[in-house]
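User: I'm preparing a small set of examples for a lab meeting where we compare how different chains pack in three dimensions. I only have the primary sequence for this one, and I'd like the structure in token form so I can line it up with the others. Please keep the answer compact; I'll paste it straight into my notes.
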Amino acid sequence: MAQSQAPHPGVALGGVFLSLFGALWLAGASYRYLGVSPAALAAIAAGAAGIAAWGLAVFRRRPPVFGADAAVRKRLARSFMAVNAVQWSLIGLLILALNVSGHVAWIVPGVIFLVGVHFVPLARLFRYRGYDATAAALVLVAVLDVLAGAGARTIAPTLLATGAILWTSAVLLLRAMQPRRTAG
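Assistant: Understood. Below is the structure token output for the 184-residue chain.
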């Protein structure tokens, strides 16, 4: 698939997933910074709901470019599930290995690293180059966390950065999916 083509219409659903997973990372950051804060959690929930609703609206407005080709839809769905199955399996193995080896502080940056890397094949699959930037930003956060000592001192900013990257990626993705307006 050439990257010069328009993103696959299904990528708009990525905005929904990015909003929800971003909210989980932001909720973790909120807890680390503020403890249990109903106001902060409500703001995060509202932000996630707003981005997710926008993602669903964009998805519904997009024309089904591959609507007639069931084989292409099936291959895309299978590839998407495979990427995510590999990601979640690696996350599980990573958590197990780091627990067994006594490197528990590396779990969060390790998970962020794997989440970042999983965006590389998704960028190709959905023909959306923005996922390459998401991947690079998440990998950078993971590496910086490890270099800074990966632990209690770095966890809150790392969680905050990860959630912010996912939400920023969602907004940029959804803006890219908006129909272009022509001057007239």
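A couple of notes for your slides: Residues 35 and 123 are 36 Å apart (CA to CA). The mean pLDDT is 90.

User: Perfect, thanks.
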